Amino acid sequence: MESIETNTQEESSRACPDDDLAFDVFSRNCPSRGTLEHVTGRWGSLTMGALHEGTFRFNELRRRVDGVSEKMLSQTLHALERDGLVQREAQPTNPPRVDYELTPLGREVAERLLGLIHFLEGRMPEVLAARERHEEMREGLGRR
After folding, report:
1. What is the per-residue pLDDT for 21?
2. Each residue of 23-77: pLDDT tens digit?
3. Distance between CA 34 and CA 126 in Å, rounded?
């Protein structure tokens, strides 16, 4: 009986505020959709992956995530911090020093992302071959 009550409490605590359903990323109003977007977007996933390596200052992180603009990295870090995945720590020094690191939840999310990243990196020969076949097929259809 206790486990049923616990499950019911867990389900109700996970409800989407707008429609009283359990969290469902496929539901337009579910807040999990925004967090998924923050984590799996290009800069979010790369930032999370980089922070899995350790604590970084802003410019160190920007160099590690090659190609991200200062503005995009700032927005990404803000969103990830708001979601409880990244912790920002300002050091009282002159000039000020700000360090970024993953929270325990962020570390767990990053580990799962890195599993996907490493899987994709290992399968890139197949992906590149598929792209080449696709382009050859499109070129063949265009010539008719």
Report:
1. 54
2. 988 888 899 999 999 999 999 999 999 999 999 999 999 999 999 999 999 999 9
3. 31
Query: pTM to 2 decimals?
Result: 0.78
Residues in the chain, total: 144
Q: For tokens 């720590």, what's the residue? A: 89
Secondary structure string (H, E, C) spanning the chain: CHHHHHHHHHHHHCECCCCCCECCCCCCCCCHHHHHHHHHCHHHHHHHHHHCCCCEEHHHHHHHCCCCCHHHHHHHHHHHHHCCCEEEEEECCCCCEEEEEECHHHHHHHHHHHHHHHHHHHCHHHHHHHHHHHHHHHHHHHCC
Checking DSSP bridges between strand 97-102 and strand 86-91, what pairing results, if any? antiparallel
- Partnered with residue 97 across adjacent β-strands are 91
What tokens does 46 get?
Answer: 């790369």
